[in-house]
Structures are given as C-alpha cells and as structure tokens.
Amino acid sequence: MPSKSFQIAALLAFLLIMFALFQLGTHKPTSVQRAAYHWKTRFERNSYGNEERDSFLDQHQIKKLYVKMLDVDYNLAYGIYPASETQIEYYNGDNPDSITYIPVVYITNAVLKNLGQDQITYYAQLFLRKALRIQSYTQKEVKEIQIDCDWTETTRDKYFALLVAMKKLLPGHVFSATIRLYPYKYHEKLGIPPVDKGMLMLYNITNAANPHQHNAIFDYIEASKYISRWNKYPLPLDYAVPAFSWTILYRYNQFNSIFTGDLEKSGLAQNPKLQYLGKGIYKVKESFEAYLNKEVYLRVGDVLKVESAGALEMQQAVSLAKRAGMNAQSTLAIFDLDMNELRKIPSHDIEKIYTITP
Amino acid sequence: MTSKKYILLLLSALVLWPPQTTNSCGFFISDEEYRFWMFNPNLSQLPGSFPFFYTSELYYEGLDKYTRTADPNPDVQAVANIYEQNINQWFAYTKGKVSKDAISTFLYELDPATYFESEAIWLTNNEFLNYATNHHELLTYLAFAKLSEANINTKPVWDDCPDCPNIVNGKVVPLNRIPSYWEMHQEDFPKANTTIVNQGLKLYEQCSDPFLKRRYGYQLVRLAYYALDSATMANVFNSAFANGSKDWMYYDALMYEAMSYSSALKNFKLAQVFKYAPSKRYRCVQLYVQKQHYQEAISFAENNQEQGMVEVMEAIHNPSSCLSYLRHLQIMDPHNAFLPFLWIREINKLEDWILGPQYSEFGSTRSNDLWYQDAQNQISFSKQLLKDRAYAKECLQVLEKQVGLNAANASFYHLCLAYVHFMLKDLAQVQQQLSLVQTEILSNEAKLQYQLTRFMLALSQTDSVNDEIKNTFLQLVQTIQKEEANNYELKSIRYQLISFAAQEFLKRNAPAEGLMLFGKTEKGYAYHPYIGKGNVYTQLFEKGTPEALYKVIEILEKNQKTDFEKYLCGDIYCYYQEDMLSENYELSICKWNPNRVRDILSMKLVQQNKIKAAIQVLSRVEPNYWSNETYKLFAKDDPFVVSPWNGHAAMNEVGIKYTKLSFLQQLYHLQNQLSRLKGEEKAKVLYLIGNAYFSMSYDGKYWIAQSNYWSCETEYDTQRPSFGADYFTPYRAMYYYKEALNCTQDVKLSALIGQALKGINMSEKSLYTNKQILKMLKSRKINTDTYEQLNGNCDLFYDFLKTYSYFAPQRKQSFAKNQK
Q: Phi/psi of residue A272, each to 5°?
C-alpha cells in the first residue's frame, strides 16, 4: 500500500495535470496590440475623405499608428536634406481620438556616412522636432518615437550615437528603432541599437534587384533562415508584417526601378502593349509612355514584375514573429495602411493575424 | 369648401411667389478690361519692357490677365542672348574644341543632383566635361559651379519648422497654436552656407586662370549675397569686376551687389543694371523704391547717362504724368534708349484719359466709379478732361523738340505727334505729321500703327461712311488678325479699332453697321446693369433705333453681301442670354440670331406703342425661339392678370401660355375690339389692356416686351432713352384703367380698377392714395364698400378674377383665333 504522503503527492500531481489540461482546453485566443504604419506624404484625419480607412481601423480595433513624418537623405549637391516631410491635416472636432500616434523618421545610410560627429546633436534635435510635429496637430502627447534606418557595420557607431543623442534630448520618451532581418540575425556584428525596443520588419527579405528572386517583399523560406526560436534578440521587440505590392521594372535583365502599386490595380495590365508571362510577370511588346505612380517610358523588351504581400504572406510573417517571441504584449503592425491593398484582404484574415493562440 | 381652401392655399403660394431675383452680388469689371488704347505699347520693342507697358494696375499682364499670354517683345530673346553670350564665351575658352550643345547641356540643362549622382557617367558622356577632365582647373571650377547652383537654386531646405514644438530641458514644449497656411508656406530666402563660400574663396584665391577666376568671382558674389555676407560680396565684386568688361556677367553680379544695399545707392545701382540687363529689368523695377531718395540717387551719377537712368526708373514707376522726367531726359540724354518706350507709355496714358471717355462707356481708368451717370462725378470728369487735354498740349511741345534732337528716330516721333494731335482733334496736324513719317524705314508694328492712325484720320475727316472707309477698315482688321499669331497683344488693338469704328459709324450714316461691329470685340465698351460688361445685343437695345435695327436684319438676311457685310455677319461675341436668369455671363463666340434682333426691334416698337408693327416683326421669329430659357418664364404667366398688391407676381390660373407674339396679338385684338364695345364689356376689356401695359412696365412683371432684361437692377430713370418714359412710368396702364373706370358701374370691377390704380407708382411713389380713389369712385356714384373690402383681401380678389380675367371662355377662343 503506498504511503499517505505518496498518495497526497499523486493527488496533487493529478490535480495539477487536470488543471493544466483545463487551461489548455479553455484558453481563449488573445490579441496582440494592434497597429499599422501610415507611410504616405500626407496624413489626414478629419471628418471626410477617409471613411474606408477609419472604418478599417475601427473594425480591427487598431489603436496604434506609426506615422512617417520625415525622410532624410544625403547627396553631394544638397548635403543632408529633407527628402520629404509629411503634410498633416488633422481635425477631429469634439470626438475623442483613441489612437496613439508614434512618429517615424526614416534616415538613409548615406546620411549616416556623411554625418559629422559635431553635427550629431544638431540633427538629433532637428529630426526629433520634425517628428513631434504630429503632436502640434493632434494635441496628444507623443510618448514614443521610432527611427527607421538600415545601418551597416561602418555606420553603426554614428547611428547609435545619433540615437543616444536623441534619447538624451528626450529622456522621458520611449525610443524604438526598426530592425531588419539581417541585423536581427547578425546582431553581434551590427550591434543592438541603444533604444528601448525594436520593431522587427518581416519584409523586404531579398534583393529586388535580383530578377530571379521569388518575391522580394516576402519570401517565407528566405525569411525563415533568419529567425530561430532559440536565438532571441537582446531587445524587446514589436513586429511589422507586409501588406503591400510593387512593380519592379527590369531592363536588359537588370533592375531599373520600383513603382508602388501594381499593374493590375492601375489598369495597365490590360494594356495590349504588355504581354503577360504568368506569375505576375509582364513583358513590354511595344514601347509606350505609362503611368505607375509616376511617369515611365517603357521600352520593348522591358520586364515588369508585380510582387505583393497579401493574406498568406502576412500569416507566414506572423508565424515567424511568433517564432521570434511575439506574445500578447507585443505590438503587431501592418505595413502599411493603404486601403488599395488592404481591401483585397478579407476581414477575417486581418483579424487572424492580430489574434494569437498560446 | 375644403377643396376651395386648398385651391386658395395654392393660389396664395403663387401670389406670394417672390419675384425672380438675381443672385449677383454686383458686377466687376477690371480696368484693363475696358481701358481704351490703340497706340501699340510695343512700338519701341524694348527687351524686357512688357511688364512696364502702361497699365492702371501695378504691372502689365497682357491682354487677358487671367490667361498667360506670350510676351510679344524680345525679353525672352534677351535672356536667350545672355545664354548665347555665355555659351559663346565658353566656346571661345575651349578654343572651339567642344560643341556648343555640350556646353549648353552642362550649363543650362544638367540638374546638380543628377550630375553628382552620376558624375562618372557625365564626365565620360558629356563632351564639355570630358574636355575638362584634361584641364584640372576647369573641372574644379565646373564642379564648384554646380555645387553653387545647388546651394542657391534647387536645394531643399531645412526650414524653421513653424509647426514643430520645441525641446527644452528634456521636455517637449508644445506650440500655443498651429501657424496659418501662409505662415507655414512663406517663401524662404535661400541661404547659402558659409562653408561653400569659404570653399569658393579658397578656390578663387588659388585659381590662376583669369577667365575662370572671374567666374569664381561671379559665383562668390552670388553665394555671398545669399549667405548675407556683404563684406565678402563687396570685396570679391571689386576685385573681380571693377576693372574689366561690362558684359552680361558684370551686370548680373552688379544686380546682387545692388540688392545688398539700401535706399539711394540701391536705387542708383538698380537703375544701371536695368539699362544693361534685360533679364533683370523686372526685378530691378520691383526693388526700386520710387520717389524716395531721388535726389540722393542722382548724386551718385558720374555722367548724364547714369543720371538719365534714374529718371527712367522714376518714370516707369509713375502711372501718372511723367513729363518732368521726359523733359530731364531730353536735356541730359536725348538719345537715351528708353525714351521712345517712355513716350509710348505717356501716349497710352493720354489715350486712356482723353479717348477712353469717348470710346468706352466706362470712361477712363482714372475713375473707378462705374456709376457714370452720377451728375456730381460728371462735373469732375469734365474738369479732369480739360486738364488732360492741356497736359497733352504740353507733351506736344516736348515731343516736337525731341524730333529735332533725335533725327534717327524722327519717324517714330512724328507718329507720336500725329497720334497726340488726333486726341486733341487737330486733324490738320495729324495729316501734317503723318506726311513726315518715312514709312519705308518703319518696323512692321510701326507701319501698322501708321495705317491705324491714317484710318482714324480718314474716318474723322468724313461725315459719312463710304465703301472705301469700310474696305480700309476691313483690310486693317484682317492684317492685324494675321499678325496676331505672332503677337497676341495685337488682338487688343484689333478690338480697340473695332470699338472706335463702331462708335464713329454710329455717329454717322452707318448706325446699323456700327451696332453690328460691337459684336466683333470682347473688350469692354458698354455698361450692363448687372452683368457689368455689355455685349452686342446690349448695344442693339441701348443704342439701336427701329430704323437701324431694321437695317441690321436686312444685312443679316441679304443674299449678296459685300465683303464688309460678310465680316459683320460672321461670328460674334455675345452672351447666350442677358436676362438675370442666366448664371453664365461669359462672352462666347456665337452666330447672329436674327430672331433675337427681331425681338429687340419689337421692344423698340412696343416702346413707341406701335403694336401692329411689333407683331409684324415678331411674326417672322421662328417658333422655337420662344422656348428658350428666358421665355419659358413667360409661359408661366398671364400678363392680362395683375395682382394689385404685387405687380411683379406671376399670375396664371388656367395654364395659359403666351409668347411675346401671342401676347401682343391678343393685346392688339383687344384694342381693336374697343371701338365696337360699350358699357361693361368695354370696361372689362379696358381693364385687361391696362393690366397688359402694367405688366410690361418697370413695376410690372417679367414681361420684357419693352426691355432687353428685367429692370430690377436698373436705376429708375425716365430719361433713359432705351427704355423710354413709358416703361419707367405706368402712364399707359393708368390711361386704360381710368378709361375703364369711366365705363363701368360694376362695383367689383371698379374695386379691382381702384386697387390697380392704387398700386401704380410714379417715381417710386404711389400716384393715387386710398382717399383719392374713394373720391373717384364716389364721384362716379359707385359704392365703395366692395373696394374697401377688397383691400388686401386675396380671397375676394381671386373670386373677382373669375369674372374679369381669363375664366371667360370667349377670351380663350379669341386668343386661339389670333394665334398663328
């Protein structure tokens, strides 16, 4: 006959197992913190003109919006210059605005290369002030600022110094930085940016310049190579998944340019001067002037490749985000809030990507 | 009973239906839309002078200021000349080893950002840059020039960020308010940074090539200006440009130097730049501050020519009399290149002030008061006209002297003299001056001016318009029209010529032709009460006599037309409608509408109470004319029924539809009935006729049988010939009402007539008081109870209408019988 203590222990173990099974059986799916990126040069929030977008935000209870405020670039002629600044039109009347706005500043690597040490504080202040413009319009305190930059080994120190300078200027604010898959995996080489958290960008995986790549926006197999369940990034992370498309122009089998949007949406796909080769690839049969978010002269022999990231790619990206450690406290942001793309995705698929089951 | 209430409710709505009112908040016609001028402001063909043609506004903006017009004068060429000079200088510098195309591409087409992004490619592919790769100093300069260009011309700037909060002590300090759109988008003064200035100074010092050194100097002057570094700018300017040729680069650099000063010295230097740099002229005039520091600016002049330029700048800034400046110039620098231009400006002013009142109803642009009829203003205008004529005579004296001083340009000045004499109506002198013009040496534009002046003289010298005058006019118009393809401004001269001829033909034996000519011009020549600018149909109505209008129709319908008549009958400018119903008051190209002319003619005949003649005219109007927008409104009204309490109210109980023709036919029929009618029947008919005349009057309804448009915006003016006293007054209606009263003993009809009489106004005052009407009725032994009951009683009024208006079937039959 087993001893009394053994009996008690066995009972406790049984109860524990039963409890765990119960939890597993009854645990409801939860949602991550829902967010989206606004990546246009004009940000509008008013009582007209954006009904579809606002309805999308409401329907999916998206409460966080990362709004690009500034693009900074460099060239020899202009030096470090503002390549674009977002125009803001904001009027919400007496209606309370439940959205949290996180301004984003995008900085090219060329800026870092040409940023003098004695200029760091100056530009840090300039970029922050430009980012905080959104606060002037929404009258809502900005608590987090995000910097988006593809830094390299050689520009790492300057980038990090810039981030430190920003933090010093606004010590009470949360700073986040975008992390792409390469610096995520090779963080020993590229360093960990000195910010409070990172935003892991699960897209732009492969090089669009390569005409043979499958989908430069998102390729699950390629992306998987970067994410390991066991190799955690030493910084709290949020996650961004893609929902956009683009058209890449190859000329003489070489990358020429990228256009936002896709041929199908613009109606260009029906142009008889284009020949569809399958898998989103079109060949130009006859030269002509076209418009694809900007004017372009297409020549005979040019190849146009439409790449997109929709429901499937988003779900695949989310699965990688989970692998990387996404949980209910994480923020998951859709890149980006373009209704031309989002209306192609069924609503329940959007809900699916925001829902996680432990 | 219930249904009656509903009917009355409906009728009340109709009775109380407000008269149609225009939504116009007034009209607006700008000075340049009507300013009269025929002396070509471009006769001197001075480069860069287009914005300084005389105008009553700040700068001249062309024939149609709302449409960009091509600058007719060689300002663009002047700029191109500078480019050409520069390219030639570089071509010579490279000893012809580089093509001008390659030089031009680098200098004027290659964007700095594009260059620096693909520098290696450009160094290989552009011949000029490729050449420079073997000439180190040249390449260094070219790169610096592009950097300089980027810094000043195209650089996107970090602005002051007016909507950015500040960061102070680790905290965000929000803004008190968002700046306005204008605050946010104030044009930034481009700022070159001191780094590039210092870089340029080093290169300038090190450069051993004098050609390149001078160009470094130019770049530095420019950069230092934008960097607000006046010391560097002055030093470099003196060292690079003080001793050297005064070419385009010198004056460009001088422009920057001038802009860095203030007050008198700035004015003086701008005046010199103005002389030599056509591409900078506009900016020089903008920056020059007139009248201030005039004497001090002159004191900087080292010779008469320099002083003369200050006078020129003062004159260009002055839209009023400038004879004093012209006199000074004549003394100091009689061969000043700008004198002809300034004289043209002066003549254009005189045209505006003296000829404007003759050839445009809007007068001269001196007066912006469009209520020209104001007697008080008329006195002021007359006095001013005398002063302007006196001024013109003074100008003549100075001009005559100018001929002797500038023999090479004598023909031009004779042309000026002829024109000024024309303004003063000294036709003999016009003849004399024109005879002294050597036409063979004139430019094409001056030749045209000569022909214009000749024509003006010929027309002024004759009392009648003969075929020769018409043909000369036609030839001139066609000549100008051909030239317009190259010079859009000539269109305005063509329009003015047409206005001039139209007014002159009207005074002579060709009023019909004169009236029709108004259709050929878009320029403002006549006033319209609520559109502002009249059109040809306005003129037909305002100025046309029945005889002239018959002639217009005759010309339109003639089979064998002369060339001049064919021209008259071609396309015209008109408003689709000019009553207040239309919201589209844009002049557009139209075809003549003889129906519309007949309509206007009928109005004139009705004004003279020639109803039969009016009917004969309207009988030839095509039936579909009556379904235009204007007449659709008539279709809703019966003019034989008038509400005594609101003469404007449309009244139509049985859906009867009249056109103007059928209305006049019915009126004529009723008038013809009178001789065979007696007693009450006659009274009823007289009452209806009275109503008809009342409907047509100023206080009546929208029955424009006598006017071209409803008069609600027109000033009450019994003297106005086009409308006539019988339109502004209800005398005709009153006559018939009183006749009706004399014929009747019917208390209801008497009451109606009494109310109608009470509603009659004369000079906007009631002609009959209630008391007077009661007295009239009592004197006719008519019981006044019904009349008094009818006071303001709609129900009773409509009850009476059944008996006394169109409810009677006989009227409908008679109407149908007479309708064609």
A: -65, -10
* Nearest-angstrom CA–CA distance, B31 and B61: 12
Give pLDDT, residue A35: 97
Q: Is residue A11 situated within a structural domain?
A: no
pLDDT computed for residue B56 by the predictor: 82
Question: Is position A50 within any domain?
Answer: yes
SS3 assignment, position B315: helix
Nearest CA in chain B to A143: B172
Peptide bond just before B638 cis, omega within 30 deg: no
The fraction of chain A above a pLDDT of 90, given in percent, is 55
* Measured CA angle at B726 (ends B721, B730), to 5 deg: 145
Say if residue A40 is in the same domain as residue A157.
Answer: yes
DSSP codes joined into one string, A61-87: T--EEEEEEEEEEEETTTEEEEEEE-E
Chain A neighbors of B163, CB-CB under 8 A:
88, 133, 136-137
Domain end among A268, A291, A307: A307
Q: Which among A46, A121, A132 is the top mutation candidate for probing chain B, defined by the most B β-carbons within 10 Å of its own β-carbon?
A: A132
Complex confidence, ipTM: 0.82
Nearest CA in chain A to B145: A77
Task: Name the percent of chain A lying above pLDDT 70.
Answer: 95
Q: Please tell me whether residues A75 and A195 are part of one structural domain.
A: yes
Closest to A70 (Cα-Cα) out of A104, A101, A100: A104
Rounded distance between C-alpha atoms, residue B627 and residue B659, angstroms: 9
Say whether both A198 and A112 belong to one domain: yes
- Same domain flag for A218 and A249: no
Using a CB-CB cut-off of 8 Å, the residues of chain A touching B172 are 132, 135, 141-142, 170
The answer to whether residues A237 and A110 belong to one domain is yes
Pick from B116, B158, B167: CB nearest A169? B167
For residue A324, which phi and psi values (nearest 5 degrees)?
-80, -5
Q: Check whether A49 has a pLDDT greater than 50.
A: yes
Burial zone of B105 (CB within 10 Å; 0-12 exposed, 13-18 middle, 19+ buried): middle
A142–B172 C-beta distance less than 8 A: yes
Domain co-membership, A144 together with A79: yes
Number of compact structural domains in chain A:
2
B contact set with A (CB within 8 A): 112-113, 115-117, 146-147, 150, 154-158, 161, 163-167, 170-172, 174-175, 178
Residues A337, A213 share a domain: yes
Tell me the residue range of the domain where A249 lies.
Answer: 245-307
In a domain, A8, yes or no: no
A77 near B CB under 8 A: yes
* Tens digits of residue pLDDT in B2-37: 455 544 444 444 444 433 333 334 456 778 888 899
Residues of A in contact with B161 (CB under 8 A): 129-130, 133
Each residue's pLDDT tens digit, A72-101: 999 877 889 999 999 998 887 777 789 999
In a domain, A17, yes or no: no
The nearest alpha carbon in chain B to A137 belongs to: B178
Whether the CB of A129 is below 8 Å from some CB of chain B: the reply is: yes
Tell me the β-bridge partners of B590. Answer: B572
Q: Is the sign of the CA dihedral B587, B590, B593, B597 positive or negative?
A: positive
Contact state of B165 with A136 under an 8 Å Cβ cutoff: yes
Collapsing DSSP states into helix, strand and coil, what is residue B65?
A: coil
Q: Which residue of B has its CA nearest to A139?
A: B174
**Domain identity same for A55 and A184:** yes
* Tens digits of residue pLDDT in A186-244: 999 999 999 999 999 998 877 777 777 778 889 888 899 899 877 789 999 999 999 99
Query: Which residues of chain B, if any, have pLDDT below 50?
Result: 1-2, 6-26, 66-70, 74, 369-375, 807-820
A133 touches chain B (CB under 8 A): yes
What is the CB-side half-sphere exposure of residue A268 using CA atoms within 13 A? 25
CATH number at residue A329: 3.20.20.80
